[in-house]
Amino acid sequence: MALETSSVLSWILFCLAAMMISTIFLKHRKSCYSIKRKLPPGQMGLPLMGETMEFYKAQRKNRLFEEFVEPRIAKYGKVFKTSLMGSPTVVVNGAEANRFILSNEFKLVISSWPSSSVQLMGRSSIMEKQGDHHRFLRGLITSCLSCTALEALVPNVCNTVQLHLENNWQGKDIISLYCSTKLLTFTIVFECLLGINIEPQMLVTFERVLEGAFAPPLNFLGSKFSRAKKARLEIAKTLKKVVDEKRREMEIIRSLEDEEKGGGMLLSRLVAALIQGDITEEEVIDNVVLLVFAAHDTTSFAIAMTLKMLAQHPDWYSTILQVIIFVNFD
């Protein structure tokens, strides 16, 4: 009797679950059909996966535009729909369309990032904020990037570059250019812009996070995203210690204005806002992580490619060298 009752209950639960799934599926299809006329042409690909695999294949070959975007432009036009990393996506191409999108941020559109990027960069970072709080954080960060603030950083940056060249370039016949520029920009961001001393293995840990930033958000053992999340926890612990120490220093000084005048480091400004209650500790940590990735990876690649192009074009190198000599002499 007990067995029969259990079987009946299991069957009822199964039927209810099936009804719920069917209802959700039908509502989803109905909503899709109801907005179909408002969407641009394109293909959504496979269920859940969409066209993510085609996107990653093209990205891995460094031919994202040629093999993913360009064929769809030829087929559907400059604006087309697709599905990437589990999210319905509209791809916009051309100066006019992009100008429309960028000029209407927070009006008609808001910025969003893949789930993996949000989880690794931090849900309290500026890229996830909107409206007044986004403007406040942007003003706080850009205050360290004004002409006056950057002029004050130049001597420290020059010293860091000189020390890096002496330790990593001088007396060596072969140099790993990209690895060297990554270490250099990482050091400049942390020590010159943020005012944080680099600890051993910090760059390696940040690199692990970066590997998972645009990977599928599949959190199983051994996946890029799983390794990246583990590395992100290590970074958060390290930065929490740094923030707590800086906060104690500034509270002892009891003068936030003096602290800002004493170097204008970005971490000092963020912690000052934390003490005043304008932002949380999580926001300080998440924005430091985001800024390190924004400044480090793109800049190191640009420097490496610039040096590569100069090596391939000696005439350009000679011209630039003459300009530098002329400016220094003048």
Characterization of the model:
By secondary structure, the protein is mostly helical. 69% of the residues lie in helices and 4% in strands. It has 14 helices and two strands. The protein has helices at residues 2-34, 52-60, 64-76, 95-103, 115-121, 131-142, 147-168, 177-194, 202-212, 224-253, 256-261, 266-275, 281-312, 314-329; strands spanning 79-84, 87-92. Strands 1-2 form a two-stranded antiparallel sheet. The longest helix has 33 residues, at 2-34. The protein is globular and about 55 Å long. The model is unreliable at 1-35 and 258-263 (pLDDT under 50).
* N- and C-termini, Cα separation: 100 Å
Could you give the order of strands across the largest sheet? 1-2
Quick one: how many beta strands?
2
Given as residue ranges, the uncertain stretches (5+ residues, pLDDT < 50) are: 1-35, 258-263
Category from helices, strands and their pairing = mainly alpha
**Average pLDDT level:** 82
**Tally of helical segments:** 14
Biggest sheet details: 2 strands, antiparallel
Strand content: under 5%
